[in-house]
Amino acid sequence: MQSYRQALLLSSSNCHGFSMLEFAKQEICSVLEKNNVKKLLFIPYAQNDYNKYTAKIKEVIDLWGFEVSGIHTYKNAEKAISDSKAIFIGGGNTFLLLKRLYEHNLVELIRKRVYDGDLLYIGSSAGTNAATKSIHTTNDMPITYPPTFDAIKIVPFNINPHYIEMESETHKGETRDQRISEYLEQECASPVLGLREGSILKVDNNTLLIKGVAGAVLFEKGAKKTEFAVDSDVSFLLKTQ
Fold this sequence. Notes:
Blueprint: E1 6-10, H1 25-34, E2 39-43, H2 50-61, E3 67-70, H3 77-82, E4 86-89, H4 94-103, H5 107-115, E5 120-124, H6 126-129, E6 158-160, H7 176-184, E7 192-195, E8 199-204, E9 207-212, E10 216-219, E11 226-228
Parallel strand pairs: 1-5, 2-3, 2-4, 4-5, 6-7
Antiparallel strand pairs: 1-8, 7-10, 8-9, 10-11
């Protein structure tokens, strides 16, 4: 492993026009190979059927030459994390995911190992939300109560996965932009990076790049939203307080 923070934060595992994770295959394989990772620990806590979800991911990634195993198959989740060089936290419900990460005492452990450069983090959807400052900007319903909305903080800002702009003459309800604006009105608010479907935020030490097949949108207090195309450098966001 390289001795610095590394992560791939995907908007989702599925993207229109691609099979599962296909749009992210090059980035995932590249970072795993770069770090000599052969075994990938999958964390399916955002869903309830751990075996089914893990099997779905395993079916894809094992064919790429890596070996996926589910954290639920280990007796001790903390030891499973400590013994791993790379993890993949999948999507589902973000509130449920964060609650279970805290229940298994994994939030601080993952954060420390990622920052020490000992653990590569891959997240998708809810797994991406969990990697940020907080889960305030998830799209999910609060079906359960995590002890706090504070997340792993691999990056010091928030992300809105599955970001989409609603422009319709018939839709008169709240748009995603409006909901993000409501969050930004709060005193605790940090910038929000909206990842369109097919977008990936690549964290490589002190560098942040937009990768994948779609761009991203940045929302900040008192500013107009800013568009970022694929391959844009958004490293300045690491300086967010």
